[in-house]
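Hi L.,

You mentioned the student needs an example of a multi-chain input paired with its predicted structure. This one should do, with 707 residues in total across all chains.
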Amino acid sequence: MVPSPDPVLDTPDSGVFRVALSNFDGPFDLLLTLIGKRELDITEIALSAVTDEFLEYLRGLDAAEEMDRASEFIVVAATLLDLKIAGLLPQGELVDAEDVALLEARDLLFARLLQYRAFKEAARWFEDRLRVESERHPRSVRLEEKFRESTPELHWTLGVQDFAALALVALTPREIPTVGLDHLHAPLVSIREQAAHLVAMLRGGEPMSFRRLISGVTERGIVVARFLALLELYRHAAVSFEQIEPLGELTVTWSAADWNAENLANLGADYDN
Amino acid sequence: MTTETPIDITDRPAADGADEADAPLAPHAAADLPLERALEALLIVADEPQPLTDLAAAVGAPLREVSAAIANLVADFDGLTGGVRRGFELREVGGGWRIYVRTDYDEVVTDYVHTQNPARLSPAALETLAVIAYKQPITRGAVAAIRAVNVDSVVRTLAGRGLITEVFTDSETGAIHYGTTDLLLTQLGINSLDELPPISPLLPDGADGFDSDLRPA
Amino acid sequence: MTTETPIDITDRPAADGADEADAPLAPHAAADLPLERALEALLIVADEPQPLTDLAAAVGAPLREVSAAIANLVADFDGLTGGVRRGFELREVGGGWRIYVRTDYDEVVTDYVHTQNPARLSPAALETLAVIAYKQPITRGAVAAIRAVNVDSVVRTLAGRGLITEVFTDSETGAIHYGTTDLLLTQLGINSLDELPPISPLLPDGADGFDSDLRPA
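Structure written out for the whole complex:
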């Protein structure tokens, strides 16, 4: 057993947040730990507290040694910072497009956190099954001599040079290690995800202009994805359009009689590959 | 564990038949052998799960007949056809049929064979495996996005274990898409991905939004 | 499937059991399991013929009882105790007991083995062989890490073909190290491994680094 010098995630008594780096596996893990520690639902209040601790934690990182880890946190840290700003803004005045964007970013982060947690739970099922099954004994015995002897004679055509070439191919690393650049360029935007936003905005409410539906969105990719999502929704007769004049305001009205999650699940499948 | 468990054979279906299990089976055309017996002979030499189609090809019988014969064998080994409940059983895992020691006897066998279990997977590897299992085919980048960490070395480990494999490479982006293997199913003791527990209940808002492509509950 | 056969645990007079192999068996002290069932469980996973003494030790029963139980199992598989004549049989070979395919089914099995072992090695097998040739002695885990795929079945095939062999087992980890055989040299038309053409010395040593979390089986 390797001694674990710092197995605890925090020292509740001192109130100082500390974390053993070997004990978690990335920013989401850390966030979940923090949220769990607060024993709070993921609410704005919890979040602002968590954000503080998270930033405190980042400050405490040994820059030289923990650079790798720290870099992984930047995305989450940036998002959390944004959210903290949003939290500091006066409530009830969410007219500013930027505020809306911040709220969306928060929702996205929450969604991703919850998704992450779901997979963590699924991983536990995998662990249990793999353990149980590893204790089972399948029949896996050497082939009886007489059957082994009866296998057709090996047809060998490879010369020694070809064999060496084959070795070279097999020994050449197939995947060149790469540095993750996902945070540097625009991530892929899911039409389905954007459709979910649209459905949430439109369903059971007033007609909205397209301008309104993309208010606060700064990324071109998301605007495009929302438009495509609208077309998909139209195809499913979930929305109707009204445009008085060419290039005029496009008004979108929710028109689906019955709509369920399954419709959404199948939506935009054409774009999946 | 109870005391001795003699099997009550008073209600044997074929009262007088000494070899009743064979009785309903016409000798098989191709091999002129009882189908169930030929199948159990094949399963005795097999060292991995045998797909029904392979077995059918080997005995030269229609899939439907082979399927029924396998069902009979399962019941036979389970002691449901008038015989004893065997120390081994026939299980469908990883897309095929394979003989296993019955769980009751796992302990005796474990003590005897000291098989070496492979090293356990790290939590990071298990989570990555779960993401790939539910979202396949999926690129490393997409897994990394969900897990918010680089997963390259973990993916390599999983591939080396044969639990995942490259399914295809996107011709445009060159991104390799990964999926799970039959070996994973075997090691989970399940026969198909449908037997994975539904994940939607674990997710917020069920199938809403981003996870809509996950296996439905 | 037929109706379920209830397990009668109320006890049965052993005398009138007539055809029930289990009947005369007292529950075994060590495992509290029917002796014959425990033995068949052991035999179903046994690779080599198992000496009676080993089996007796495994089930913790007197040799005499085990010997009688084995005799019962032989008769059972031969269909002499009221059941069917199985596609497999229990034979004593070289001082031990092992389950073999019954001779009647040799042909079916042989055909099957042929389809499973084509005369040509698969590309995957050739690549694995090449890796082993250049990196020997090497464990399966290390080969898997280099090739980023599971190589268990391929290694089995290569060993079965006599192209590779177990060189030694690491006393600490229990990991088997494989090397190539003279048969490979013969096939390649060379006299010693020294005659293998050198390949780039700049290649990273595959055994380092990424496979550290794999314990070779």
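You could point out the following to them. Chain C has two domains: 20-103, 117-206. The radius of gyration of chain C is 24 Å.

Best wishes,
N.
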